[in-house]
Amino acid sequence: MILLISILTACNQNIKSTASKNVLLNEWEGPYGGVPAFNKMKVENIKDAMIQGMKLRLDEIENIAQNKDEPNFENTILQMERSGKELSRVYSYYGILSSNLSSPEFRKIQAELAPLLSEHQSKINQNESLFKRIETVFNNSKDNPLEPDQQRLVEIIYNSFFMSGASLNQQKKKQYASINKRLSELYIKFSNNILNDEESYTTYLTKEELGGLSEGFIKSAAEIAVKNGEKGKYAITNTRSSMDPFLTFSTEREIRKKVWKNYYSRADNDDEFDNKTIIAEILKLRKSRVNLLGYDNYADWRLQDRMAKNPDNAMNLMMSIWPAAINRVKQEVEDMQKLANSLGHNIKIEPWDYRFYAEKVRKSKYDLNSEEVKQYLQLNKLTEAMHYVAGRLFDYKFKKVEEGSVPVFHPDVEVWEVSKKSNDENVGLWYLDPYARQGKRSGAWASTFRGHTTFDGKTNVLATNNSNFIKPAEGESILVSWDDATTFFHEFGHALHFFSSNVRYPSLNGGVRDYTEFQSQLLERWLSTDEVIKQFLVHNKTGEPIPDQLVNKIKKASKFNQGFSTTEYLASALIDMKIHLADPENIDVAKFEIETLNQMNMPKELPMRHRTPHFGHVFSGEGYATAYYGYMWADVLTADATEAFVEAPDGFYDKELSDKLVKYLFAPRNAIDPAEAYRLFRGRDAEISALKRDRGF
Ligand SMILES: [Zn+2]
Question: pTM for the complete prediction?
Answer without folding.
Answer: 0.83
